[in-house]
Design a protein that fits this description.
Elements (H helix, E strand, L loop, with lengths): L1 H33 L1 H6 L2 E4 L4 H9 L5 E8 L4 E8 L2 H13 L13 E4 L1 H6 L7 H8 L3 E4 L3 E3 L4 E11 L2 E12 L2 E12 L1
Parallel strand pairs: 1-4
Antiparallel strand pairs: 2-3, 5-7, 6-7, 7-8, 8-9
């Protein structure tokens, strides 16, 4: 019995870095897919983390077990109702992962053609962030922030928050569910969104 326990512990120690590397690859691949078009046309400037208000809104949006939204498929000019029913285990996992977002701090150059903007830099520029010309010159007109993607169902479903700030009356964000379809991530349900 002791040998079996030691063997299991040893396998977990050996497998942990591999599994973490796989998770990081999946996260990076998801972000590259989501921001692919944007990174082709402009340099992306993103914040280190997301706010506690966003994290709270993410948790609130998961109060129901059945999540629904209307999904517009632009290639087929159709609109259909999408529904995702969470199991209690999935819901607990999602809430646990959302709580981890508080400690999230992204590295620099996470995605192609991008740079991180540290919190202390944003604080130093706070009074200038309402100036469209300053935003255009310093940050190519836009700052974005995004959550760590949360994958369920063997990596085929992803919960993800992202927002964009381009001035005091220009910006928006959403917390949405994506599914992997033909090798690409497709948005199917928006849990909440905001626009300024």
């Amino acid at each position: 019995m002791v040998k079996r326990i030691l063997l299991i512990l040893l396998l977990n120690i050996i497998a942990a870095p591999y599994l973490e590397g796989q998770a990081n690859k999946r996260t990076k691949a998801f972000l590259e897919d989501i921001f692919k078009e944007k990174s082709k046309s402009q340099h992306i400037y993103y914040g280190e983390n997301i706010s506690s208000n966003v994290i709270n809104s993410m948790k609130i949006s998961l109060k129901k077990d059945t999540l629904t939204s209307w999904y517009a498929n632009p290639s087929k000019s159709e609109k259909k109702r999408c529904e995702l029913v969470l199991t209690p285990k999935e819901k607990r996992y999602l809430l646990k992962e959302i709580n981890k977002q508080v400690k999230l701090c992204w590295p620099n150059h996470l995605i192609a053609n991008s740079s991180i903007v540290a919190d202390d830099t944003l604080s130093a520029y706070e009074s200038k962030l309402s100036d469209f010309i300053f935003l255009k010159e310093r940050f190519d007109g836009e700052l974005i922030s995004f959550s760590h993607p949360i994958f369920i169902r063997r990596g085929t479903v992803c919960f993800f928050y992202n927002d964009s700030y381009c001035g005091p009356t220009c910006g928006g964000g959403d917390f949405s569910i994506y599914i992997k379809e033909r090798g690409r991530w497709v948005l199917i349900i928006t849990l909440f969104e905001w626009i300024s």
